Amino acid sequence: MFFLLVWMPAILVAQLTFEEMVDRTFGSDQGLVNGIQFSNQYILIEGNPYFFDGRFRIGSVLIGDQFYEYVRLRYNLYTQKVEIEYLAPENHMNQLITVPEQMPAFILEGYVFRRMQIGEEEPAYYMVLSSGKTSCYIGWSLEAMGGGNTQRSFGPLERKFWIQQGEYWTDFHNRKSYIEAFGPERKKEFKDLLKSKKFYFNQAGTIELLDLVEATLQALEEGEGL
Q1: From CA 158, how far away is CA 202, in angstroms rounded?
Q2: How many Å apart are CA 164 and CA 106, to the nearest integer?
Q3: At the N or C end, where does the chain have fewer CB atoms within 10 A?
Q4: In terms of pTM, does the model score above 0.70?
Q5: How far are the Cα atoms of 9, 182, 184, 223 from residue 134, in angstroms, in the given order?
Q6: What is the DSSP letter of 13?
Q7: How many whole angstroms separate alpha carbon 85 and alpha carbon 10?
Q8: pLDDT means per 10 residues in the chain (226 residues)?
Q9: Among 130, 129, 128, 131, which Cα is nearest to 113's?
């Protein structure tokens, strides 16, 4: 069985009613609402830049060492920033763009994202999954394409994977690099895994992707590792 890695060593806000939580979290807490006032700078770019869709969903965020639940948020893959919708003191809904350096982690739809730096990559948010002593970090991103005389649009979505088992790391991002990531002696095993799941990196949705990661982590835990 694989797990979303819930690792946050944070102080959990006391259990309150939803209304009390919203008032306490968004009314006067300057730690949470310390961000940039939201403005849609990408309205002329076709497509959806968000993880899932553009709707705000209930999740949790880690600000400093304080863990907040029942936060309305969405993750912008183009800007690599989390956007929050909150109730302003004037009793109307407002939006802000959070500062990544002040938010080391968040949970969206049960998926854990942790801000970290892997190798020479720029610091970014990674979805974190784990099985036993093996973890997978998935980086999600997209770019805006077009311009000039053509309509700008988002996409395609890029996903990169890093596997950690103890002090050993490997990475992959497509079929070829996946098959070669775990050593020549295990090429056939992981090639067969892709085939059995009829998995194609450029076509897979989130559910299919997570299913492959689960199977990969299990195989690494049960086998000889990296």
Answers
A1: 9
A2: 21
A3: N
A4: yes
A5: 20, 13, 20, 12
A6: P
A7: 22
A8: 48 45 47 56 76 91 84 92 81 81 92 94 94 94 74 82 93 95 94 95 90 95 74
A9: 128
